[in-house]
Known about the structure:
Strand content: 35-45%
Structural class: alpha+beta
Shape: elongated
CATH superfamily of the largest domain: Vaccinia Virus protein VP39
Distance between the termini: 19 Å
Radius of gyration: 18 Å
Amino acid sequence: MLESAVPGNSHAAFGGGRLEKYHPWQLAGPLPNVFQALLNVFAPRNPSEFARILTPGGFLVVVIPTQQHLRELRAIAPLLNIEENKQHRVVACMAEYFAFAGASKVEYDIELDNADLTHLAQMTPSARHLSPQTLEGLRKQAGFRTRVGFALLRFVRI
């Protein structure tokens, strides 16, 4: 099951408050085994729902941040840390429904101007915790360089 917000609540990214109540809904309705592939990027995972809607032998790619992801930005702003053994934990939580088929790591540096740096910080899970002072400090940065790092975890539906 995936979750949707109760009407009247809105996400901070859309200028509203935070979500506090959720209602589950099924991605593929009552039709199981309808997708051959799923992509999950930096998002919550529900292995049983993914397994329900994927065909046997179907592919799931889960993209997670590595320890290097936004390391320089995390050094100057109070962003959430990235779990040290995140890949191991994700693989373990999928094991009941999926065979782990491998991982690829992608890492590269990006250079951001002050506006892009501020926007990037506001897109993170930590956005609602950033103080006006922190955001103002980011707006004063010029030519900021940070590392982007993520792992693509590949799974096959058992």
